[in-house]
Here is the input.
Amino acid sequence: MKETELSPIITEWLVGNGYQVYYEVPVRGSYRYIDVVGRRGDNHTIAIELKRSLSLQVVHQAMRLTRVAHRVYCAVGSRNPKQKTIDNCQRWNLGVLSLADYKVKTILEAADNPQPHIYMMRVDAQLSEVGGLPARRGEGHAITVIGRVMDYLKEHPQASWAELYDRVPNHYAHPKSMRSAIEGKVNKKTVW
Here is the structure.
C-alpha cells in the first residue's frame, strides 16, 4: 500500500475516536510536515507519520514530533514490524499502528506527552486533503502555497506579505521566509 492509501484508514480511526483530522500539517520554524494530525475539542493532539513499513526513517521522522503533540504514532502498512524497531519506538515514547488489511491495529501504545508545544503545529495551514504525499519536483507544499497566493492576489492585489502570511494557509515560519521563498515564482505582471 502507498502512504496515500494508508491515509483514509487512519482518518476513519481518528474520526471514530472523536478527532478532527488535518493533513500535511506544517511545523512552525522548520520544513517538516506531519502526515496526519488528529485534534479533539479538548486540544488533545495525535501526530501520525505514515509509511509502508516500520523503518528507522519513519522512527526518526516521528521522534522529531514528540515535542509538538500529546501522542505520536508511526502508522505502517505492514503486519509484523521488526521487534528491534518496535523497541526503538518504545524507547522514544512512540506508538506503532499497523494498517494492514485496512484495519487499525495497535502494536504499541504511544506514551502521553503531558505538555506538548501544540502551537508549533499549524493545523490552520494544512496543505492537502490526504496525508503521506511524496515530495517530487514540481509538486508539493511550496507549489500549493504559490497557487494559493496567486489566487488571493487576484482578489487582493495590494496585499502585503504580512497579510498573505496571515490569510493564505502556508508552511512558512514568518512573512519574510515566505516572501524570500516564493516572491520570484509568483508572476507579478499577472497578479499585481
